[in-house]
Task: inverse folding
C-alpha cells in the first residue's frame, strides 16, 4: 500500500512521517514518530488517554487520521515541560499524587493545560466538566481536581 | 480496492471524488462516528474524503434571513459564536451536549445529521427550527427540508456523489425561541434515551401563535410531532396547555425497548421533556421581544 508523506509541526518543530491512508494520528505518533507519551486507551474517543492539541483544539488523536495532520500544528505531552522545569499542571499532579498507574496522565496534562489556557480561574465544576473526557481508573479524580485547582492558582501568579 | 485518503479543496472536487468512488467512499468530517465505526468494522470505506479543507464546509455566516453553518464546523468553533447561540439557543445547547471537550474539538452538526442516528442530539433542535440542508451533487445543488433528510437509522436522502455542504437556519421571528432537552442516565457524555426540541412564538400577551415540537430517540428517525405543537397554539403556555402537549408527545412516541430504556419509560419521558423544553423556549421567547 502506498504510504502518504505528511509534513506537520509537532511541539513547535517541523516534523515529517510516512503513514498509511487510514492510520490514526494516535498510531502514527506512537509508532511512526516515536512520541509514546500519547497513550492508547479505548481508541473510540471515550477515554482521553490519547489527547493532543490539534490546531489549537483539544482532540482525541484516535479520532483523527494521521494524514489530516499535514500542515497542521500539534502539541503533545512531550512539549509541555520546559527543559528542567515541569509545567505547573505536571508539578501539581506530582505534589497532590494525582496519578497512580499513569496511563491517563499525559491526556490529563494536555486537557488540563488546554482548559487553564482558556479559563485561567475555573470552578471545581468547570474543571470536572473540562476533564470529563479523561477517564482515570485509579485516583477517584479528587486529587486530580485539586492538583488542577492548585496549578490554576500558580499559573495566575 | 486500495485504501486511500483524499483531501479536496472545493465542493466540486469533493463531489467528483464521491461520484468516482461510489459506495467505496465515505465523507470524513469530525470522524467521531466514522472512525469508531471503521474500527468496529461496522463501516469499511476504502476511500475517505476529508472535507475539512473546503472553506465553505468550515464557514459560519450570519445574514438578514438567517445563518449558514458549514457542515464540518466543529462544536468547539460553534461555542465561540455568542450571537448565533443567542438566536438559536436550543440548537447550540444540543450541539454542546455531544461528547467531551475532545469530541467537541472535532464533531460537527453536519456529521451528526449525516450519521443519521435516531438519537442524534442536534436533529430534534434542527427540526424545531425548520432548518434547510444544502446538498451538492453531480447534478448541482439542491435544498432538502430537515424533515425529509433522515430516512431511517443510519440512513438519509443523500444519493450517490452527494455531500451535505451546510445547514441554513432561518432567522427566528420576533418573540420566538427554542430549547432542547435530553434524558441520559449520567450527567453527561451519553446517548439520549429521549430528546425533545421545541420552538415557540408568543404574541405580546403571551399567547402561543406557533409551535414546533420534535422528538429524538423514540423512532427510527427524529421527527416532528405536529399534534404537540397544535396543543400549544392559541393558548397561553400554562400547566393545562403543557399537559396537553405532553400527552400528545407521549402518544406520538414510537420507541423501542433497548438497553437505554423501555417503551413505557420513553413514552413517559417524551411528554416530560416536551413540557420542560416548551417552558424554557417560552421564557426565552418572552425575553426576545
Result:
Amino acid at each position: 500500500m502506498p504510504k502518504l508523506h505528511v509534513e506537520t509541526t509537532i511541539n513547535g518543530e517541523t516534523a515529517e512521517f510516512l503513514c498509511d491512508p487510514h492510520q490514526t494520528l494516535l498510531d502514527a505518533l506512537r509508532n511512526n514518530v516515536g512520541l509514546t507519551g500519547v497513550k492508547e486507551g479505548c481508541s473510540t474517543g471515550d477515554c482521553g488517554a490519547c489527547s493532543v492539541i490539534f490546531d489549537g483544539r483539544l482532540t482525541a488523536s484516535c479520532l483523527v487520521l494521521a494524514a489530516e495532520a499535514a500542515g497542521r500544528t500539534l502539541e503533545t505531552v512531550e512539549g509541555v515541560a520546559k527543559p528542567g522545569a515541569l509545567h505547573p499542571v505536571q508539578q501539581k499532579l506530582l505534589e497532590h499524587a494525582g496519578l497512580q498507574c499513569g496511563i491517563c496522565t499525559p491526556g490529563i496534562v494536555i486537557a488540563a493545560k488546554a482548559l487553564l489556557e482558556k479559563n485561567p480561574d475555573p470552578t471545581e465544576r468547570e474543571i470536572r466538566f473540562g476533564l470529563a473526557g479523561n477517564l482515570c481508573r485509579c485516583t477517584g479524580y479528587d486529587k486530580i481536581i485539586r492538583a488542577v485547582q492548585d496549578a490554576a492558582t500558580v499559573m495566575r501568579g | 480496492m486500495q485504501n486511500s485518503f483524499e483531501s479536496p479543496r472545493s465542493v466540486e472536487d469533493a463531489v467528483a471524488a464521491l461520484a468516482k468512488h461510489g459506495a467505496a467512499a465515505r465523507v470524513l468530517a469530525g470522524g467521531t462516528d466514522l472512525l469508531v465505526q471503521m474500527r468496529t468494522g461496522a463501516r469499511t470505506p476504502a476511500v475517505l474524503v476529508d472535507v475539512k479543507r473546503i472553506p465553505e464546509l468550515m464557514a459560519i455566516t450570519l445574514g438578514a434571513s438567517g445563518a449558514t453553518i458549514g457542515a464540518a464546523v466543529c462544536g468547539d468553533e460553534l461555542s465561540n459564536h455568542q450571537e448565533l447561540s443567542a438566536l438559536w439557543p436550543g440548537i447550540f445547547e444540543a450541539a454542546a451536549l455531544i461528547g467531551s471537550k475532545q469530541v467537541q474539538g472535532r464533531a460537527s452538526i453536519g456529521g451528526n445529521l449525516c450519521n443519521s442516528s435516531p438519537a442524534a442530539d442536534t436533529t430534534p433542535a434542527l427540526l424545531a427550527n425548520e432548518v434547510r440542508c444544502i446538498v451538492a451533487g453531480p447534478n448541482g445543488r439542491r435544498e432538502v427540508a430537515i424533515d425529509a433528510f433522515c430516512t431511517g437509522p443510519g440512513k438519509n436522502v443523500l444519493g450517490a456523489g452527494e455531500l451535505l455542504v451546510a445547514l441554513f437556519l432561518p432567522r427566528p421571528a420576533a418573540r420566538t425561541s427554542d430549547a432542547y432537552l435530553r434524558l441520559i442516565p449520567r450527567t453527561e457524555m451519553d446517548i439520549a434515551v429521549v430528546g425533545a426540541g421545541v420552538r415557540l412564538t408568543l404574541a405580546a400577551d403571551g399567547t402561543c401563535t406557533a409551535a414546533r415540537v420534535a422528538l429524538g430517540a423514540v423512532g427510527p428517525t427524529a421527527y416532528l410531532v405536529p399534534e404537540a405543537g397544535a396543543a400549544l397554539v392559541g393558548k397561553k403556555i400554562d400547566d393545562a396547555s403543557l399537559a396537553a402537549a405532553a400527552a400528545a408527545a407521549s402518544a406520538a412516541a414510537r420507541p423501542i425497548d433497548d438497553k437505554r430504556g423501555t417503551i413505557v419509560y420513553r413514552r413517559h419521558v417524551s411528554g416530560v421533556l416536551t413540557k420542560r423544553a416548551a417552558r424554557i423556549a417560552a421564557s426565552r421567547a418572552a425575553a426576545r421581544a
User: Anything to note?
Assistant: The CA atoms of residues 39 and 50 of chain A lie 5 Å apart. The first strand of chain A starts at residue 4 and ends at 10. The helical segments of chain A are 25-33, 88-95, 105-118, 124-130, 142-156.
